[in-house]
Amino acid sequence: VSGSCPGVLDGLPRASLAPARVHGDDGLLENAGASIVLSQWPDRLAVPVGMVSQGYQLVPHRALVEHLLGVLARQGIETRDAKMEASLTPRGERFLGRLVVPDPGYQFAPDGLACWLTVFFRNAIDGRGGLDVELGWLRLVCTNGLIHRDNVARYRSTHRPGLDLGDLEDLVSNELKEL
Q1: Are 127 and 136 in contact (CB under 8 A)?
Q2: Which of 93, 96, 102, 176 is deepest in the core (most CB within 10 A)?
Q3: pTM, two decimal places
Q4: Which residues have a Cβ under 8 Å from the Cβ of 35 and sit 6 or more positions away?
Q5: Are 149 and 118 in contact (CB under 8 A)?
């Protein structure tokens, strides 16, 4: 999926946690040690995509992208015209995305060529992976389409209790101040 941020966001599945239930001799029982992660595409039923511990901190894909857009806006970077690409697994449990910010989301390198601010992000809501966000600069190196990327900042975390996306905001803010 690719296009404007609002269009891509509207197509992302929602995610939620539900208590895990097991069948026992007395019927259906709650399992206090686990939760089921549900993924729900627009206009479809929710489907289970993973089982996680009670301490699992769910960060839905849409919430991650909306938070990143807010972080950039608070840093004075306009993202309204940003282009976004998103790849998801068929059930929506894993997500890979890229956000490219157009003017004025660029700077000029010492050689006078423009570099575009780009955010790469990965997220897995099924308990099989963490959260990874990279802020970097892309520049066209050659007329054949070769692109060079310089990473500016990277945020990685597992979906553990106490996961705070505010840490991501601090990292982005500090890195953009150094530019």
Answers
A1: no
A2: 93
A3: 0.84
A4: 17, 18, 19, 20, 51, 52, 53, 54, 56
A5: yes
